[in-house]
Amino acid sequence: MQKVGILGGGQLGRMLLQSAANYPVETYVLENDEDCPAAHLCHHFTKGDIKNFDDVYQFGKGLNALTIEIESVNEDALEQLEKEGVKIFPKPAALRIIKNKIAQKEFYKQAQIPTSSFTTTQNLAELKTKEDFVPAVHKIGMGGYDGRGVQIIRTIADIDKGFDAPSVLEKLVSIHKEISQIVAVNEKGETALFPSVDMVFNQDLNLLDYQISPADLPKEILWKVEAVSLKVARDLKSPGIFAVELFIDKNGDVLVNETAPRVHNSGHHTIEANFSSQFDMLWRIILGYPLGNTSAIMPAAIVNLLGADGFNGEPIYEGLNDLLKMENVFVHIYGKKRTKPGRKMGHVTILSRDKIDLIHATNKVKQIVKVIST
Ligand code: ADP
User: Fold this and answer.
1) How many whole angstroms separate alpha carbon 347 and alpha carbon 19?
2) For residue 148, what pLDDT is reported?
3) How many helices (DSSP H) and strands (DSSP E) are in the chain?
4) Å from CA of 152 to ligand 1 middle
5) In the predicted model, is pLDDT for residue 207 greater than 90?
6) Where are any strands of DSSP class E within 122-196?
7) Is 104 part of any domain?
8) What is the mean predicted confidence (pLDDT) over 157-161?
9) Residues 291 and 216 occupy one common structural domain
10) Residues 319 and 292 in one domain
């Protein structure tokens, strides 16, 4: 039986492990928090820091393969393990490109992959010399996740909000839609595309409102999304799952925003809505089985369950009973021990053949359920 390790024990690791139960595989998780969502679902749990060379190296030695649930891992240790014969999904070379937003943008440019035009800045003083580039978005090169490393610079007055560290300064795109396209690549270089996902943002709160798949796109735009995403995944020259996030701008142009070299939040609905889920697909890739069928069984929407404002502590899922009365609604609770405002505590997948129904149901779900605490 193959021994496969996951770096990180959050909700993505947990869902990967739920899928692993279908395969002949012995699973290992490395994570600092013994109470993390994945800790009790793996065969072997190791407490340790995924950013630390020795912790990652010792954990990976002797395993057949390793994968990640987050980019902020020690890639030097992964590179060393790769040299010693451990298979890494994604390859450390691909991870290195993606981990640094400067390297990632340069990769798109070199590969002639459409992306917003950009320049780089080493520090705040240099940013201040780039007034001509505003309106723009400043993104820190390393270490910024979940919007924390991104500042929108609409006017010159905003320039002080920028980062005093190596960063990318990209032109502000007039976004019509944000799309996620998940691509699977196996070791033979064979690929499979999942149906694309519409990521719908709440403009007032600047928060992801819900996601819906397949995305509502004219054919010509969908073809571009698929072609561009396939090129990103192929040019990274690594097997794995790649979530390519794209903008469709107001002119109908397709631009790559960024890529995650791993299973992704925008693919959670594939557990119920597609024949092979993104998690199932990653196991097929790691274990060397044929790629799965990515076709949608039914259109789906995802609503995230976020910790409600004003509540910190042991979570209570208010309204769960009513939620479970809804038809074709699937609840995923991540098992986090504490809730806090805005923390991702779970998600709900809704299936329906009718897109209008789906949108109604997402609103209903948001009204019914609330994550509070004792
Ligand atoms: P993170 O990796 O932290 O999620 P992103 O690069 O995805 O950061 O940016 C977060 C959000 O900021 C995007 O979803 C998008 O709404 C907005 N954004 C990012 N880059 C641009 C851009 N060049 N033009 C306009 N909006 C952008």
Assistant:
1) 17
2) 80
3) 11, 20
4) 9
5) no
6) 136-140, 150-153, 167-171, 175-185, 191-193
7) no
8) 92
9) yes
10) yes
In a domain, 323, yes or no: yes
Percentage of the chain beyond pLDDT 90 is: 95
Task: Show the domain range for 142.
Answer: 117-171
Whether residues 257 and 343 fall in one domain: yes
Mean pLDDT of 72-99: 98
Last residue of a domain, one of 137, 171, 205: 171
Going by CA atoms, what residue is nearest to atom 10 of ligand 1? 147
Q: Do 135 and 250 sit in the same domain of this protein?
A: no
- Count of the separate structural domains present in the chain: 3
Q: Are residues 238 and 365 in the same domain?
A: yes
**What CATH number corresponds to the domain at position 188?**
3.30.470.20
Asked if residue 101 is part of any domain, the answer here is no
Give residue 146's pLDDT band: very low, low, confident or very high (50, 70, 90). Answer: low
Q: Within this chain, do residues 247 and 356 fall inside the same structural domain, yes or no?
A: yes
pLDDT for 130: 94
Mean pLDDT of 75-79: 98
Q: Is 71 in the pocket of ligand 1 (CB under 6 A)?
A: no
Burial group, residue 240, by CB count within 10 angstroms (0-12, 13-18, 19+): buried
Does residue 147 have a pLDDT over 80?
Answer: no
Question: Is the shortest distance between the CB of 150 and ligand 1 below 6 Å?
Answer: yes
Mean pLDDT along residues 1-5: 97
Mean pLDDT of 333-358: 94
CB-based contacts of 110: which residues, under 8 Å, 6+ apart? none
Based on the domain organization, do 220 and 363 belong to the same domain? yes
Nearest CA to ligand 1 atom 3: 147
Report how far apart, in Å, the C-alpha atoms of 128 and of each of 51, 100, 137 are. Answer: 32, 22, 13
Q: Using 50, 70 and 90 to split pLDDT, how confident is the model at 169? A: very high
Residues ≥6 apart with Cβ < 8 Å to 44:
26, 27, 28, 29
Which range, 137-146, 231-240, 340-349, is most confident?
231-240
Q: Is 184 a domain residue?
A: yes
**Ligand 1 site, residue 141, Cβ cutoff 6 A:** no
Report CA(162)–ligand 1 centroid distance (Å). 14
What's the predicted TM-score (pTM) here? Answer: 0.96
Q: Rounded to the nearest whole angstrom, what is the distance from the C-alpha of residue 29 to the centroid of ligand 1?
A: 30
Answer whether the bond into residue 37 is a cis peptide, omega within 30°.
no
CA of 257 to the centre of ligand 1 (A): 7
Which of 171, 197, 215 lies at the terminal end of a domain, its last residue? 171
HSE of 165, CA atoms in CB hemisphere, 13 A = 13
Pocket test for ligand 1, best of 167, 257, 264 (most atoms within 8 A of CB): 257
